[in-house]
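Write out the 3D structure for:
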Amino acid sequence: MAQQTTGMANKGPSYGLSREVQGKIDRKYDPELEERLVQWIIAQCPDVGSPEDGKLGFQAWLKNGVVLSHLINSLHGSDKPIKKVQHSDMAFKQMEQISQFLAAAERYGVSKTDMFQTVDLWEGKDLASVQRTLMAIASLAVTKEDGMFRGNPDWFFKKAQENRRDFSDDQIKEGKNIIGLQMGSNKGASQSGMTGYGRPRQIMS
């Protein structure tokens, strides 16, 4: 009975506006993306088992943070970001494991805007944001091309790369000369008719 009460306290009923908001969040969840993410996670971590179909199965699979921790560890070599991955039935331990995953994901390169909050997963408040975080990690893994990604790289888009242009010293000097010529061509421009800031323009009657 105590366990049931605790569960209800964790996620109370949705009333009025909050129910409407939750409905909109739920509609953002993508069942097809769920299937692709599950395929990828299993390819990365063959020993993590598989979830039951559907959003609730997906949440239950990831909720204790263990699968997520194995996932982010699988994208590193010998220096794993999460040193201790432990199964626990205690809520605070599970949330702590999720927090470790989120910290490791940020260090991996996921932007804060693509990061879900612990309660989004643990309480099921926004599983669409969980999908977004996982997709961002997968895209980074494909982009890095460091040999750690497993699965089909066509499952995810590559992240946009910084467009770096390396110029030679001669090209840089030539560019400065062009800028200098452009500035020189303005030297003969007349400022008659222009007024200084704050000075009223004289109107001839």
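Confidence is low (pLDDT under 50) at residues 1-10, 162-166, 187-200.
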